[in-house]
Fold this sequence. Notes:
Radius of gyration: 19 Å
Oligomer: single chain
Order of helices and strands: HEEEEEEHHEEEHHHHH
Helix content: 25-40%
Largest sheet: 7 strands, antiparallel
Distance between the termini: 36 Å
Amino acid sequence: MSSIDLSAVRGFLLGLQERITDAVAEIDGQPFVSDSWQKEPGEMLQGNGITKILEQGKVFERAGCGFSHVRGPRLPPSATQHRPELAGAPFEAMGVSLVFHPRNPYAPTVHMNVRMLAATPVGEAAEPVCWFGGGMDLTPFYGFDEDAVHFHQVCKDTLAPFGEDKHPRFKQWCDEYFFLKHRQEQRGIGGVFFDDFQELGLAQSLTMMQAVGDSFLQAYLPIIKRRKDSIFTQRERDFQLYRRGRYVEFNLVWDRGTHFGLQSGGRTESILMSMPPLASWSYQRPNEAGSPEERLYKEFLIRRDWV
């Protein structure tokens, strides 16, 4: 296995965070607030990161984009499930994760993350073993075929250079992961998701992870530009807040937390960063037959091929 320049990966991730937040701030008109942090001596993990938050903007009620780079003395059990030979190995993990909650109900929420984990086998003078994860998914409150097709087409085009099997595999993985099992309901219209990935070899697997991160603005910005100024009423706003409650429900009940957060003793603030600023919750909400709200459930929150 060829070695990897961890400092170069860190540089890419920091640059990705900056490019994304700069582009989003330009659309919104309000800058992100930057919070740099560093783990305290004596904590289980060491490392640092930058959390960027845009709150109560013209376009986004909350947009959070975090970079994290942490090191630990032992891999958490969740990271060695498929690599038992690395149990107890020191590691470092870095990544960028974001969740954007638009103000307008016709504009979808979006999630994206890309990450790398490197572990050094215990007792061996060997190069670190590295693997990658990432993906993005779209959560509309009102369904538009044009938006769904565009988002999925960008995902498919991004993965095409890495093999014809990648998009269908990663799309299926996304559909299966972002699913509220207790409600038998998709969180959104999916996208792509991959984890524990190294099968293309170190260099190409890294390139694929970078390509997914770099494609985010192309996938999302055209949609937000189309929908951000749409006229809406209190009805649409109420439905948006209700669906945001389902988003929170997924995060709290089914999601594993953040890869660099709860599983490895990291920052719980990363979960708070992803939560919508306002949401409502009820056990269920009847929708009028033939309404746009009913159409979301019948035509969009189902597993289907968009491209």
